[in-house]
Amino acid sequence: MIMFAPSILLPEGHCRQALVSAGDLFPETDLPSPSDSKDRAYLGLPEGQTFLLKQVKAEAVLVEILNVYCGHCQQQAEFYNKLFNLMEKDPDTKGRIKIVGFAAGNDEAEVKDFRETYKVPYPVIPDPRFAVARNLGVTRAPFSIYVRQDPSGKTGVVAATHRGVDSEYARAFDDLR
Prior knowledge:
Blueprint: E1 8-9, E2 31-32, H1 37-43, E3 50-51, E4 60-66, H2 71-89, E5 97-104, H3 108-118, E6 124-127, H4 131-136, E7 140-141, E8 143-148, E9 157-163, H5 169-176
Parallel strand pairs: 4-5, 5-6
Antiparallel strand pairs: 1-7, 2-3, 4-8, 8-9
Helix pairs in contact: 2-5
């Protein structure tokens, strides 16, 4: 069972980058590929060790930085599960908008337990060495990044970010649409 912690401050001095913010291009950083073939299929990714966010087959991608022991991240799982279900049930958004989480400081077993405990249907990828969080400048979880993908395959633009629990999943759905 996952333990509850109120919020996670990522390791002191771990960031080399400024925090990603609205208007930035999403950093062209290698992201670890999901190990599960269903997660890769959902994101439209081939097999491989890494991927770039611009390879995700979607018009918009919600990137969530979380930690499985963070109480706020655990709360947010409920809201993002509802958001995921809204997106997947709506014929106008199914396949066009995707969610992917990166679990900063967590390994595969911890992520598996988190996904089972909180019934998380979207990919959550372990980031045990904080590499993804570091490259995005993220120091606290949860942190959400809304990325508008470029239809030509170029790097997507960060449309918005949100620090902390985003309980307004219906608003987020409207914004993503």
